[in-house]
Design brief:
Blueprint: E1 4-8, H1 13-25, E2 30-33, H2 43-56, E3 61-66, H3 70-76, E4 84-86, H4 90-98, E5 104-108, H5 114-125, H6 134-146
Parallel strand pairs: 1-2, 1-3, 3-5, 4-5
Helix pairs in contact: 1-5, 2-3, 4-5
The structure holds D-ribose.
Length: 147
């Protein structure tokens, strides 16, 4: 099965590790990106690493976590081909797959308890994209070219 890259900054090391363990337990191949405990980093670097891997196809999906999820979602969405969705609950996680075909899921490590974060990931992975929204995604892709 295709690889999922999981990255974080220093604000979410514990949650990143929990997400990696959860995905491995689900049988997924995972690449982990981010600092060790006590090391401070700048989240655009980890977001770019994961987003570029998704955009090139080295990874099929990415999960990015910072304190709020806001910074990593802004950064990841700068990479053409990436649709990064910041989600806060199972409902937004499900819609991120169903309506937006999000290929990077962003979470706030300081906002979500671990069980809810893992539920969000499961909802996103287990929900299929509804193809009737494809023309809207095509318009988003066009923005990458035309501004
Ligand atoms: C880092 O302190 C914090 O700014 C970052 O984790 C994130 O919340 C940014 O959006």
């Amino acid at each position: 099965m295709a690889r999922i890259d999981v990255g974080s900054d220093h604000a979410a090391v514990a949650l990143r590790r929990a997400v990696v363990a959860h995905l491995v337990a689900r049988g997924r191949t995972v690449r982990e990106v981010g600092p060790a405990v006590g090391e401070r980093v700048d989240y655009p670097d980890q977001a770019a690493d994961v987003a570029r891997a998704v955009a090139t196809g080295d990874a099929s999906l990415g999960v990015m976590i910072c304190g709020t999820g806001i910074g990593v979602s802004i950064a990841a969405n700068k990479v053409p081909g990436v649709r990064a969705a910041l989600v806060h609950d199972v409902t937004t996680a499900r819609f991120a797959a169903q309506h937006n075909d999000a290929n990077v899921l962003c979470l706030g490590g300081r906002l979500l308890a671990e069980p809810l974060a893992l539920e969000c990931i499961d909802a996103w992975l287990d929900t299929a994209f509804e193809g009737r929204h494809q023309h809207r995604l095509d318009k988003i892709t066009a923005l990458e070219n035309d501004g």
